[in-house]
Amino acid sequence: MAPLARVLTGGFEVLEPLQRRSGGEPLTVARHVADLAEILPPGTSLVGWSWGAMLALSFAAAHPGGVRSLALVGCGTYDAAARSAYEAAVASRLGEEGRQRADHLRQALAAAATDAERDRLLGELGRLLDRAQAWDPLPEEQGEPLWVDARGHAETWDDVLRLQAEGAEPAAFAAITCPALMLHGDQDPHPGPATFALLRRYLPELQYRGFAECGHRPWAERRAREPFLAALREWLAGQGSRGSRAGNP
């Protein structure tokens, strides 16, 4: 998300915190929330992308009143049906060759003997899936080399799924008191309308803005970049806040 953070610095004070790597205690959603709590100024607006959007929701639920607003870009999934829809969409876009490559990388990742090898393989898989999640990307906006922590990713996502299986999330989001907006590409394999409908059960004031011909990274899409940036700037300015983002491990 560094390219988006740099764009926003033109009109907002932006803090882009990096998440801790694995090591020592297992990484959990609560650990990431606590880390954010140590560095975020009061009254910050959180701009989170993908897993970062989910972390922003978790943080706002744990610290009601401490967040001015939420901008949830390409938000991740909260139930098995949405995850199945995502996986089917990605598999379709990968094609036969891409699916075989993804399966090979997953098998190699499961069998890898070292953290360094797991990081390398997850990075390669991430780049493959990233291309499948784009729609009409701008080559110059495809981001920077992935900062990969395979162990941290696995620990964190296992905890995300645990919270959902236990019913803790998204039910906990009923505690959120700040305004929240989903910004979602219409061609993002993550099913935005379905996730919006689910989240609205707990956040009845949640708003939604879809972008046509747009994949998972709206700021990097040829047709959606400018409408997305305009909508995000308008949202942040309307909330009168400094901008900060919760990142994507």
What does this structure look like?
With 249 residues, the chain is of the alpha/beta class. It has a single domain, classed as Rossmann fold (3-Layer(aba) Sandwich), CATH 3.40.50.1820. The chain has 8 helices and 6 strands; from the N terminus they run αβαβαβαααβαβαβ. A 6-stranded parallel beta sheet has the order 1-6-2-3-4-5, sandwiched between helices. Helix 2 crosses helix 3 and helix 4 runs antiparallel to helix 5. The longest helix has 32 residues. The radius of gyration is 17 Å and the shape is globular.
Largest beta-sheet details: 6 strands, parallel
Number of self-contained structural domains: 1
Taken from the alpha-carbon principal axes, the silhouette is globular
What is the H/E string? HEHEHEHHHEHEHE
What are the low-pLDDT stretches, counting only 5+ consecutive residues below 50? 240-249
Proportion of residues in extended strands:
5-15%
Sheet with the most strands: spatial strand order: 1-6-2-3-4-5
CATH fold-level assignment: Rossmann fold
